[in-house]
Amino acid sequence: MGTTPLLSQNMEMDRKTKKIPHSILKVNNHDLEIDGILNGDHQFSTDESWRFNDVNATYWVKLDFTHELDTLGTENSWRLRTLNFSMAILYYQKDGHIEHKPFGHFNKMEKNKSLVHLQGVSFKKEYLFEQKYLFIKVQVIEPYGRAPRFEYLSERANRFYTDYYTTHDLDRVIMEHVYLGACLIFFITFFIIFYYTKKAEFLFYALYIFFSAFFLVRLFFHGYQTYISSMFGYCSVVISQILINFFYVLFAMYYLNTKKKYPRLHVAMQIIVVALILLILLLSYSYFSGEYTISNVTLDLQRLLMTLFGILSMGYLLLKAKNKLAIFIVTGSFIYMAGALLYMFTLSKYYMIIGSTLEIIIFSLGLAYKIKQEYESKLVLQQEVSMKETNALRAQMNPHFIFNSLNSIQHLILQDDMVSALKYLSKFGKIARNVLESSHEVLVTLTEEIELLRSYLELESLRFDNSFEYTIHLDKELDTDQVEIPLMLIQPLVENAIIHGLSSKKEGNRTLSLRFEKKDDLCVIKIEDNGIGRQASKAAKTLRKSRGMQITEKRLNMRHSQNGKKNTMEIIDKYDSGNHPSGTKIIIKIVYNP
Length: 594
Description:
Elements: H1 9-12, E1 18-19, E2 22-27, H2 34-39, E3 58-64, H3 69-72, E4 78-81, E5 87-94, E6 97-102, E7 121-123, E8 133-139, E9 151-154, H4 155-162, H5 167-197, H6 200-216, H7 222-228, H8 231-256, H9 258-261, H10 263-289, H11 292-320, H12 325-346, H13 349-414, H14 418-437, E10 443-445, H15 446-463, E11 469-474, E12 484-486, H16 491-502, E13 511-519, E14 522-529, H17 533-539, H18 547-558, E15 568-575, E16 581-591
Parallel strand pairs: 11-13
Antiparallel strand pairs: 1-9, 2-3, 3-8, 4-7, 4-9, 5-6, 5-8, 10-12, 13-14, 14-16, 15-16
């Protein structure tokens, strides 16, 4: 289909149609044909307010051109324009024979060009019965809410309907296509979210958007027209009204988690879902069996059911709302219901399009809010789990430290060194108190950690008769009060250095160095000893897989990374110029925001 140009104001005058006087005959005999109409004595009603609202009847329309003959003589061919009836046939005479031309919704023959207007049906002056009349046979499968108009214009002027657009036409086309485009974007977005999250509310809302667009946007291109001109296609469009409500209710059930938070509303929603499924089956049966009265009753019942349910459920949620999610549902539902009711009473679907658009925006915000809420809840849960795991790890480490300290005191007592034992016991009491006082804290400042290390090193120096020297160096640029680390993170590493490295060294001085430095956004901790090294400890079978080392590594990994960097720990084996082991160096890098 090519581009249709905009109709200018001058050309718009040529688009005007002339009204045709008409009269209508309603009969219950579907077998009555044009011969019976022409030869019978039937009383046609001239009441122009007549509506075609009986799906079990056949309507005959007599178009009276008595006062239009002069106008019809000015052109060779004309175009009749009226409503898009379900099934309509134009009867006329040609060369002394009665002929007919179907142009209803289910028997449309001409290919349509316009996105807005139908083609109508063509006729000529010589087609008139008695040089006055044309007859139309009409059957409907759903009531028409307004009285039909019958108008005509020349074929040339009809082009201004099918080949050109007015600004009003463009407003309609743009609104529908913007709505369709927005629905397509939201549908794809929520379907992708469902694919990755497997949360049912996103799937149901995506399907709700799909059927909303499918029902509200009627595109007049040939492929779509061919589809909805079949009974299956038309039925699917009508059923989509119910599917809109069906997927909306399912979405609300999962979005609000009604099973857990609103059990009474959940039961009501389950009943509504079952009722809608039954209405879909009943509606399908009515169309394919030809019982169109059932279909109209079904649709009216569905509208009444959903209106009552919508009002009652919104009131219930306003009274029982447990969180802000209910406010999104109530607000969106109210706006959508207002648009649907205006559509029902005015027959202008644009009220429903506007209501649906606003409702989709509100529900999208609601879904985004729920994602945010779930993310924050998950984050809190992760923090709680992390805290519990940290406490569990620390609980494993502290007894290890306490056992070693008590073992050292026992060793001093057995050696009958009561003075040293009392000094050790006094310092152990001090450090034990500090550890216990800080046991409820997940993190401590580096200042507090260094104080604990000083106390521990004093204990170990006393235990080993001051057989090793230790130094603690602090970088002047490092604010130890601003750096937070897990409590007693470094102590197990210092303990390994003393017990497995320094205490096994037979000759030479024994030194242990602790350095705390600042490097960009990292706190770098270096623990270095000049002991026998890990290989010699393994050979002497004094170094087993350290539980303290394992715990320290795990506690570092549990810390969240920042700026794309992670906390790390590196162990370096030192060698002298003769390639002999000369100690161990451990480098810990902790990310922090100075």
